[in-house]
Amino acid sequence: MEKVLSAKKKSKELDRNPSIYSYQLHELENWLVENGEKKFRGKQIYDWLYTKRVTSFEDMSNLSKELRDKLAAHFVLTTLETAVQQTSSDGTMKFLFELHDGYTIETVLMRHEYGNSICVTTQVGCRIGCTFCASTLGGLKRNLEAGEIVAQVVKVQKALDEQGERVSHVVIMGIGEPFDNYDHMLGFLKIINSDEGLNIGARHITVSTSGIIPKIYDFADENMQINFAISLHSANTETRSRLMPINRAYKLPDLMEAVRYYVDKTGRRISFEYGLFGGVNDQVEHAEELAKLVKGIKCHINLIPVNYVPERDYVRTPREQIFAFERVLKDRGVNVTIRREQGHDIDAACGQLRAKERQEETR
């Protein structure tokens, strides 16, 4: 009963029935038994949701009419309306999805040699306030329910079904701070990783945080095999606070202590996302600071040439300076790569499409 209640609690902030996509299989099975149904119906329902990918309870034809009516009375089968869809020349697809309450979120499909990766959103807006990000314009509107995050993957997978392809990788780096919506985010991870769900391997999933330290400790204790990334962007406390105001609440030395706890606890390598902003954090001395900060930590640095955002004032680091930064790190024994640019000819920066299309949400 407690597990069923916990699933219902996840959707408490939404004034409507919970999304059935928010329920892990064991939670759904418990609900079925408590409502006079057979436990095995749970796997049948999961098959309809994640293999057949139906959009209505009425389509679940091997369930009784009575059970379909129960499901419709207690749950929402979350569907997302596509408000805008953009396709880049490199195959990147960006979706602006409209939610049931009229708010919009972004989801991005990126094509790689190793498979199709989808970047999902966890919140409508963001309250973290990073000064380089369009996602934070207008602040936080609300958290997404776990099922609304799952529905993004299902919706994009349905688009790929037409091409005989599948979503193979998921990154939680879209609009919002995942650890500011921790319970819903964690439920999402468990559902998409489930064999009966979307069956996406843990090591094909990456979650990123701007540095909510208490949740880093919680996530380490979950001991999941999921890839973990920290949005760092500077090894200097003053500069990081200017780029990321969260650094004033969760200070850099404390963040690095939490990172060491995570690595020691899980034995897994951690990634540091480092956006390069022209004249701000992209000089040789900044690279030397970064190498010193991560020394002795099992980690990888992901250098990100910043996408220009019209609402922000940062400029792109020159190409030769990007390579000079990379060389400094490599010379000091740091594992580093430069992120391949994708979607350069569409609204690629996180939150940019939403800001452009729905100005009333981002004022």
TrEMBL record:
Keyword Nucleus: no
Enzyme class: transferase
Active site: E106 (proton acceptor), C350 (s-methylcysteine intermediate)
EC number: 2.1.1.192
Pfam assignment, any one: RlmN_N
Residues that hold S-adenosyl-L-methionine according to the record: G176, E177, S208, S231, L232, H233, N307
Subcellular localization, as worded in the UniProt entry: Cytoplasm
GO cellular component annotations of the record: cytoplasm
Keyword terms: 4Fe-4S, Cytoplasm, Disulfide bond, Iron, Iron-sulfur, Metal-binding, Methyltransferase, rRNA processing, S-adenosyl-L-methionine, Transferase, tRNA processing
The protein's required cofactors: [4Fe-4S] cluster
Note describing how the cofactor binds: Binds 1 [4Fe-4S] cluster. The cluster is coordinated with 3 cysteines and an exchangeable S-adenosyl-L-methionine.
Family note: Belongs to the radical SAM superfamily. RlmN family.
Function: Specifically methylates position 2 of adenine 2503 in 23S rRNA and position 2 of adenine 37 in tRNAs.
HAMAP family xrefs: RNA_methyltr_RlmN
Further remarks about this protein from its record: Reaction proceeds by a ping-pong mechanism involving intermediate methylation of a conserved cysteine residue.
Protein name: Probable dual-specificity RNA methyltransferase RlmN
Originating organism: Priestia koreensis
High-level lineage: Bacteria, Bacillati, Bacillota, Bacilli, Bacillales
Gene: rlmN
